[in-house]
Design a protein that fits this description.
Length: about 90
């Protein structure tokens, strides 16, 4: 018998979207390559550049995961909880 999949929601108030703006995230992502690759380029180290690349890719994956999370207002959360409770009975 399989166990039901756990769903995790973050509840926010109506005045806060819970997500940073797309443009703010884009600027930060574009600044990070300089921080990660810059030292490797300055000292002419391929290993440092590859390490910067790996960390940069991990950062992009984390940003994408955070961007697509479910954020609910209290009213939406109540409806979702009610729906889950009705399905469990």
């Amino acid at each position: 018998m399989s166990t039901p999949k756990k769903r995790v929601f973050r509840i926010i108030d109506e005045t806060h979207t819970g997500k940073p703006s797309f443009w703010r995230q884009l600027v930060i992502i574009l600044l990070f390559p300089g921080v990660f690759f810059g030292p490797g380029i300055l000292v002419d180290s391929n290993a440092m550049q590859w390490a910067g690349f790996v960390v940069f890719m991990i950062l992009i994956a984390l940003c994408a995961a955070a961007w697509f999370q479910d954020f609910l207002t209290p009213a939406e959360a109540r409806r979702a909880i009610d729906k889950i409770e009705k399905g469990a009975k």
